[in-house]
Amino acid sequence: MTDAIESAKRTAAQKAVKENFDPSATHVGIGSGTTIVYVVEAIKEASTNPAIRFVPTGYQSRQNIVQAGLTPIAFDSLPDHVMLDIAFDGADEVDEELNCIKGGGACLFQEKLVAERAKKFVCVADYRKMQPRLLTNWPTIPIEVAPIAVPTVLHSLRVLGSSDPKLRTTLLEKSGPLKTDQDFYIVDAPFQTLLTSGDVAAGKGKGDGTDGKWEVNNLAQAIKELTGVLEVGIFSGVNGIEAEALRKKDGSTKAFGGQKPIAVYFGMQDGSVEVRKANE
Ligand SMILES: O=C[C@H](O)[C@H](O)[C@H](O)COP(=O)(O)O
């Protein structure tokens, strides 16, 4: 990893925390990956509330929290009525509508639980992740699958149009499949570059996969429906603020929800930070 990329991540993390982290927050979600380390660093400097608790999204995330001298609280210890004030995370690729691919580091299920529990979800990434459409530069959709279901899911993914879905192995291939924090496996499925909902509205395609082209939400749903799939590494749909508005409007039965970020901070090559924000 070059210094330029690490420096881009740090600069973006600092700006994201400065503009979104309320020092009096009580519950904060912390995602996984290499970028989130800089977010934790910035939060540690900014936080003024000794009672603040941090909800991790897996083993590495919890280690980051503890090593920074902050206090973790397990997701399943949160009282029912408690929403996270905010959650921060990284992303593997982000499109113009703020849909994200996540799971490049094998964390996605707990990340989605935490993102959906947050009033606001903010992502931080470097310039390589900023793309117009998903699957432009990042090659595959990570999917968390029950080990016994892997052959069936691989077959179903091929039927959905994925040319060569693969079970992810550890770096040392002979050690076998890589295991997630849930002791599940990860399948990486390539598809053609995804359409946004805006593309479909503009008549650029049906997005139902029949011509090989999927719209983001349709593909996420089709994969999630496969038996054996625990979660899919597409974060799409509505964001936390939109989810809250929906709940107020129609008394939605979904207690939590909103997996899209309200903003993504990209550290650029020239040292600047570009921000993509949801329409407010
Ligand atoms: O599985 C890993 C997570 O989804 C990460 O947040 C994502 O891969 C981005 O990681 P990084 O910050 O290392 O690029």
Automatic annotation (TrEMBL):
Cell cycle is among the record's keywords: no
Reaction(s) this enzyme catalyzes, per UniProt: aldehydo-D-ribose 5-phosphate = D-ribulose 5-phosphate
InterPro entries hit by this protein: NagB/RpiA_transferase-like, Ribose5P_isomerase_type_A
EC class: isomerase
Pathway: Carbohydrate degradation; pentose phosphate pathway; D-ribose 5-phosphate from D-ribulose 5-phosphate (non-oxidative stage): step 1/1
EC number: 5.3.1.6
Family designation: Belongs to the ribose 5-phosphate isomerase family.
Protein known as: Ribose-5-phosphate isomerase
Organism: Massariosphaeria phaeospora
